[in-house]
Amino acid sequence: MKFSEYKYVRPDLAEFKTEMGTQLVNIATGKDAATEIAAVYNVFDIQDYIDSMQQIVQVRYSINTKDKFLEGEQEFLDKNSPLIQEINQEFVNKLLDSKHRDALVNEFGLFIFEKFEVAKKTFSSEIIPDLQEENKLSTEYSKLLAGAEIEFDGKKLNLSQMRPFTTHVKRETRHAAQLAVSAWFEGVEEQIDRIYDDMVKVRTKIAKTLGYSNYVQLGYDRLGRTDYTSREVKKYRDQVYKAVVPYVSELVQRKGKRLGIKDLKSYDLGLSFLSGNPTPKGDSTWQVHHAKEMYEQMSPETGEFINFMIDHELLELDAKEGKMGGGYCTFIPEYSSPFIFANFNGTSGDVDVLTHEAGHAFQIFQSQKQIPEYRWPGFEGAEIHSMSMEFLAWPWIHRFFEDDTDKYKFNHLAGAISFLPYGVTVDEFQHGIYEKPEMTAAERKALWSKTQSKYMPYVDYDDDKFMKKGTYWYRQGHIFGVPFYYIDYTLAQVVAFQYWIKAQKNHRDAFDHYLALCKLGGSKSFVALLNSANLESPFTDGVIEKTLEPLKAFLDDIDDTKL
Q1: Where are the domains of the chain?
Q2: Does pTM surpass 0.85?
């Protein structure tokens, strides 16, 4: 069955409530552990069906935000998902209060109870109207950016389609493209400021209602973080500042020499080589063909996975009008189907996002038989699989880039390192916002500028007055949709570097190690997953500096002026 044939039926909330109620009674009054365990599995089945309907709508709507039927269904979900969450929270409470907890732990493991103890703190029926408002605002932001139309190069282009021009070999084109994108954002400045201000206010209100001093810890609890706090994250950011920022500044200087530009501006940073950035040598169909060959050769498991994805049409790759920006992977339990969403635009990012999201999809494909709570790791754990897959694809990457392969490898690794300062910029900015939610729009922009200057001192916006105001964060959807998620990419990146190091020594062993981690799913916390896989935690002092040493050696051995 193809994805287009997957059946969507608007969830019947009354029926959902009745079915869940029956199982909750069995959990609360079960005479023995076997009855409770059977009821828990029934709850999982009910939740999987509801989640599947939600995922089908959200995927189809993200593909076409102009479809009125899908818009209506998304509005229905925005309004009613908190009510679904309320019922699911009753399940959490009942499980935590079970008289047969030891037997349940034996069946499902201890970690689900640790997760549920955290989840219990994040919900109350009092906050349902606020959650509905939060959902509405998030959808409003996504739709606003999806509707972007920028007149450039004689065409009307969306934000994804502008990317090739912002990395163009001609400096005047890059400059003009950046100004065009900035002009569009300036045109919706008041809307974005209003949306974000409302988001900060409603999240702060939710936090206060739930008994938190501010949204920061609630944000962490919502993400299910059980083994580290904002204190550990701050120490981690300090490591990045000390160990990574100076080296990235060196990489930027190397780029300036390659490009023959003494005073690099922001619009120069997207170009890496005078001969042009590496690009895939074919369209999305061509890339999928090579991805199929790659994954069939990588392992029997990846071969089975990629053919499942292709046969069921679970790859939505090309940028188009009315389509939301960015990329993601989700999972539809009723059809045992991962789904990959992207916006290909002819840049190397096409291959990056394909291998990245394939890492997510492959992980869930391997762990889908776990109970729902264990299928996905937390965000920081999940990003290990995606970012590591980008590196595990290297032995086949020449098929996508041909003569540009060496350029791609240099750019990919240097770019991954250079990403870390940006990632911690986003994180520190968000901590500042939610620690002082009364900030004005102007104060938030000033905070972004200050934070970016700290971690990215090499960014000079030249004559782009709008960017100089501190507005780059407008385009980072995670800031709006999932606060405090973005640091997870950087944590996972440091771990993924460890897989790069392993793969340089023995690719087969590295992949087998990776496969074992995928099969664990989310059955353990982030730090526990690392410990199980004998991987070093980014939170440990000195790990970032140690991990960077072989990466630096690889890059320093390359004469990048000849690429």
Answers
A1: 3-128, 147-187, 284-415+492-549
A2: yes
Other Cβ atoms less than 10 A from the Cβ of 558: the count is 16
Burial of 269 (0-12, 13-18, 19+ CB in 10 A): buried
Helices (H), 210-299: 215-222, 230-243, 245-259, 284-298
The pLDDT tens digits of the residues spanning 272-298 come to 999 999 999 999 999 999 999 999 999
- Spatial contact of 473 and 364, defined as CB atoms under 8 Å apart: no
Residue 380 token pair: 């920081």
Both tokens assigned to 460:
């000079």
Amino acid type, 10: R
- 146 closest CA partner among 74, 203, 52: 74
Question: What was the pLDDT predicted at 459?
Answer: 98
Measured in whole angstroms, the distance separating CA 64 from the mean position of its chain's CA atoms is 20
CA–CA gap between residue 72 and residue 76 (Å, rounded): 6
In tens, the pLDDT along 135-152 reads 999 999 999 999 999 999
Render pLDDT for 92-131 as a digit per residue (tens, 0 to 9): 999 999 999 999 999 999 999 999 999 999 999 999 999 9
If residue 47 lies in a helix (H) or strand (E), which one and from where to where? Answer: helix 33-63
Closest CA to 312 of 14, 25, 3: 3
Tokens of 429: 């900015």
Q: What is the DSSP string of 130-166?
A: HHHHHHHHHHHHHHHHHT--EEETTEEE-HHHHHHHH
Distance CA 228, CA 223 (A): 11
DSSP 266: G
SS3 524: coil
In three-state form (DSSP H/G/I as H, E/B as E, the rest C), the secondary structure along 454-503 is HHCCCCCCCCCHHHHCCCHHHHCHHHHHCCCCCHHHHHHHHHHHHHHHHH
Packed helices 379-392 and 405-435: angle between N→C axes, nearest 10 degrees: 170
pLDDT digits (tens, 9 = 90+) for 37-53: 999 999 999 999 999 99
Tokens of 263: 């005073």
d(CA 100, CA 102): 6
Rg (CA), the chain: 23
Other C-beta atoms within 10 Å of 253: how many? Answer: 12
Beta bridge partners of 341: 316, 328
pLDDT per residue as tens digits for the range 502-541: 999 999 999 999 999 999 999 999 999 999 999 999 999 9
Sorted by sequence, the CB contacts under 8 Å of residue 281 that are 6+ apart come out as: 400, 401, 402, 404
543-556 and 405-435 helices, crossing angle to 10°: 150
CA distances from 354 to 51, 336, 487 (A): 24, 20, 21
The pLDDT tens digits for 231-274 are 999 999 999 999 999 999 999 999 999 999 999 999 999 999 99
CA distance 111 to 523: 7
pLDDT in tens, 192-220: 999 999 999 999 999 999 999 999 999 99
313-339: per-residue pLDDT in tens?
A: 999 999 999 999 999 999 999 999 999
- What are phi and psi for residue 339, nearest 5 degrees? -140, 130
DSSP 3-state of 317: strand
